[in-house]
Amino acid sequence: MPLQLITGPTAEPIHLTEAKNHLRVTDTSTDSAIARSVAAARQFAETNTQRQIIAARWKLVLDSFPGPSLMGVPIGKSFSLPGHAILLPNPPLIQVVSIQYLDTAGVLQTMPAADYTVDASTEPARITPVFGKIWPINLPQIGSVSVTFDAGYAVLFTADATADTIAVIGWKTLAINDVVRLSNSGGALPAPLLPNTDYYIQTVVSPGVYKLSATQGGGAINLADAGTGSNFLGVVPDGLISWMLIRLGSLYENHEEMARSLQPLPFVDRLLDPYRMTVF
Questions:
Q1: C-alpha span between 160 and 220 (Å, rounded)
Q2: pTM over 0.90
Q3: Are 108 and 102 in contact (CB under 8 A)?
């Protein structure tokens, strides 16, 4: 399936400060090389697991809508991958942005969101028409169907301590009382926010700009500062971060012989096993 990267990650999951602390580097002469090694480790982890670590926007290009249009969910099966389902790669899915297709007249159309349903709880995520609907008839031509979607474990956010808000770009729209978790690399979250803690959307100030509450229906949290390092909405699993840090050390210490590829380290690479994508 052809995949096009529309918007790449706006940050690496490991901030330069955290990377340098791990490597015990105190000068700035190798900052650029370390940053490239962080990106290489992240890209290798994504390729190996077929997952998206930091939020990015992708376009899946298809030649047609899949399977028999009238095929429903098999009776008696508690779970299935229906032949007419579109399966989205690079989990975890954040949101489906649009489904577009060329109609038989060659005119680009956008399928109404009310006409399809998305199951983001599975990996891969599944999309099918809602009950009573079928996939549209597309132009019988290569690349005539596309699904644009956002995927990733976490996304960068910025905090405004004066307004007590966080601003997020590249994530689904959040609503009041939605639960979120925050994380940080290379510094600290805006005080008094803490990692591994549930927070609630208290106010939607504008699209992508929110105030947080410590309890459902509670008052807005007063932010004392903007935080340091990279602040993320969402959490990258520890196993992926640990693997990247170990690999970063290998790349940094052995950059001459490992500049072209990451050599197999079977024991270390087992850290990625729980995250490798499988289609069942």
A1: 13
A2: no
A3: yes
Helices (DSSP H) in 227-265: which residue ranges? 238-253, 255-258
Reported as a single tens digit per residue, the pLDDT across 189-218 is 999 999 999 999 999 999 999 999 999 999
Q: What number of other Cβ atoms are within 10 A of residue 76's Cβ? A: 5
Rounded Cα–Cα distance for residues 87 and 271 (Å): 26
- CATH class of domain segment(s) 3-54+237-271: mainly alpha
Query: Listing from the earlier edge strand, what are the strands of the sheet with 108-110?
Result: 3-7, 56-62, 145-151, 93-102, 108-110
Q: What is the DSSP letter of 54?
A: B
For 47, phi then psi, to 5°, come to -65, -40
Query: For 35-62, how does the pLDDT look when each residue is reduced to its tens digit (9 = 90+)?
Result: 999 998 999 999 999 999 999 999 999 9
Is the pLDDT score of 258 beyond 50? no
Give the contacts of 257 (CB within 8 A, at least 6 positions apart).
none
> So where are the chain's domains?
3-54+237-271, 56-151, 154-234
250 pLDDT band (50/70/90 cuts)? confident
Among 65, 87, 60, 86, residue whose Cα is nearest residue 138: 65
What Cα–Cα distance (Å) separates residue 108 from each residue in 138, 144, 242?
Answer: 10, 9, 44
The CA distance from 117 to 119, in Å, is 7
Query: In the predicted model, what is the mean pLDDT of residues 147-153?
Result: 98
Q: Look at residues 173, 171, 160 and name the one whose alpha carbon lies nearest to residue 220.
A: 160
Is a pLDDT exceeding 50 seen at residue 259? Answer: no
DSSP bridge partners of 101? 109, 145
Picking from 104, 107, 88, the residue whose alpha carbon sits closest to that of residue 96 is 88
